[in-house]
């Protein structure tokens, strides 16, 4: 009995993990995420802090509120914010509604599996397609000598520009923004639609609910936070876009990103600190939009769990 007890104790001692050695250990488990934090610090946090500080300084480095006051006193700046908000609102709203309809169709519309896979692949690429290539693509398509414009004029006798259409306007820029707003909506809202449990529909049908009642009382309340959060995210995505707008319209459209570019890099309207103030205003708008997005996203995830 004594021999068995000693043997059991020895086996337990051998199988027990060795005690952790006391002393300093390098935090190697942080090495994997270190590039992300370094990138965020260098290209997001520090530049943002630099802009915020510069918005409250003058050319002599003294702190002042004149730049912030000019945002409200200058009619041109107020108009640029209003135009940017309108463009962002309509591109986000239209893009969200169209993207939601397409996402519902590919998830719950009974379409073949390859339609969903191809749509998601295209959406993932198109949601990041912006800047000069996108502007050139639309000018080559709907410009005064664009492919679609020429076909409508020469084949069907329809001159859209003679009818008042102009692609270099606010609505023209909204159409361009929809090219990446709709795919982004599809990419973000599809997981929320996938989270709708089949049992909910079966339970509603068992209780005698119609299809419309099921969508109105179950689906819409569950998807509503995700939908609103994505609309806000699309708004922020459009509000901060400059490469596409500048390449598409040049300086002909009075929106905040183009006015900011003119203040910081322009030869005539060269006032860097006013440009920093414009950027600070954009940070405030997009920051509030992202806060609301995170809040709505949290509510939707709570529902889908």
UniProtKB/TrEMBL annotation:
<protein>
    <submittedName>
        <fullName>Putative spermidine/putrescine transport system permease protein</fullName>
    </submittedName>
</protein>
<dbReference type="Pfam" id="PF00528">
    <property type="entry name" value="BPD_transp_1"/>
</dbReference>
<dbReference type="InterPro" id="IPR035906">
    <property type="entry name" value="MetI-like_sf"/>
</dbReference>
<feature type="transmembrane region" description="Helical">
    <location>
        <begin position="243"/>
        <end position="262"/>
    </location>
</feature>
<feature type="transmembrane region" description="Helical">
    <location>
        <begin position="274"/>
        <end position="296"/>
    </location>
</feature>
<keyword id="KW-0812">Transmembrane</keyword>
<feature type="compositionally biased region" description="Polar residues">
    <location>
        <begin position="1"/>
        <end position="10"/>
    </location>
</feature>
<feature type="region of interest" description="Disordered">
    <location>
        <begin position="1"/>
        <end position="20"/>
    </location>
</feature>
<dbReference type="GO" id="GO:0055085">
    <property type="term" value="P:transmembrane transport"/>
</dbReference>
<feature type="transmembrane region" description="Helical">
    <location>
        <begin position="30"/>
        <end position="53"/>
    </location>
</feature>
<feature type="transmembrane region" description="Helical">
    <location>
        <begin position="213"/>
        <end position="236"/>
    </location>
</feature>
<keyword id="KW-1003">Cell membrane</keyword>
<feature type="transmembrane region" description="Helical">
    <location>
        <begin position="164"/>
        <end position="193"/>
    </location>
</feature>
<dbReference type="GO" id="GO:0005886">
    <property type="term" value="C:plasma membrane"/>
</dbReference>
<keyword id="KW-0813">Transport</keyword>
<feature type="transmembrane region" description="Helical">
    <location>
        <begin position="87"/>
        <end position="111"/>
    </location>
</feature>
<feature type="transmembrane region" description="Helical">
    <location>
        <begin position="131"/>
        <end position="152"/>
    </location>
</feature>
<keyword id="KW-0472">Membrane</keyword>
<feature type="domain" description="ABC transmembrane type-1">
    <location>
        <begin position="81"/>
        <end position="295"/>
    </location>
</feature>
<keyword id="KW-0997">Cell inner membrane</keyword>
<dbReference type="InterPro" id="IPR000515">
    <property type="entry name" value="MetI-like"/>
</dbReference>
<keyword id="KW-1133">Transmembrane helix</keyword>
<comment type="similarity">
    <text>Belongs to the binding-protein-dependent transport system permease family.</text>
</comment>
